[in-house]
Amino acid sequence: MSAERVCAESEISVNEAKRVVLGGVPIAVVKDSAGDIHAIGDTCTHGDISLSEGFVEGEAIECWAHGSQFSLLTGKPLNLPAYEPVPVFTVEIIDGDIFIDPTITKAI
């Protein structure tokens, strides 16, 4: 599978996440407080909760249900109760549009 356009960069505000599903893979597309775009697995590893419904602060997203925070750079949990990381996907910005390939994860 190749990278797919998910939305325009302007469609996501700072400190906001948007859920997309590519090839059956739920992904949270996030614009952090610096305005950088990230793509991580959208399902909290502590429970079946959508991370895109959580809170974005700095370079982390927090699951609204149990408070686990995940690094947008590495996918690793930053606190309990989650202890398993979520996948992190490579993001390409082309002419203001966000492209993600759900089959390629970053090696962290």
Nutshell version of this structure?
By secondary structure, this protein is an all-beta fold.
Q: Cα-atom Rg, whole angstroms?
A: 13 Å
Spatial arrangement of strands, main beta sheet: 1-9-8-4-3-2
Distinct helical segment count: 0
Give the overall form: globular
Q: How much of the sequence is in beta strands?
A: over 45%
Order of helices and strands: EEEEEEEEE
Mean pLDDT: 95
Largest sheet: 6 strands, antiparallel
Helix % is under 10%
The strand count comes to 9
Low-confidence residue ranges: none
The structure class reads mainly beta
Q: N-to-C terminal Cα separation, in Å?
A: 21 Å
Account of the 3D structure:
The chain is mainly beta. The chain has no helices and nine strands. The strands form two sheets. It has a six-stranded antiparallel beta sheet with strand order 1-9-8-4-3-2, with no helix packed on it. The protein is globular. The mean pLDDT is 95.
List keywords for this structure.
mainly beta; 108 residues; globular; six-stranded antiparallel beta sheet; three-stranded antiparallel beta sheet; 9 strands
Q: Layout of helices and strands, plus pairs?
A:
Blueprint: E1 4-8, E2 16-22, E3 25-31, E4 37-41, E5 55-57, E6 60-62, E7 69-71, E8 88-94, E9 97-105
Antiparallel strand pairs: 1-9, 2-3, 3-4, 4-8, 5-6, 6-7, 8-9
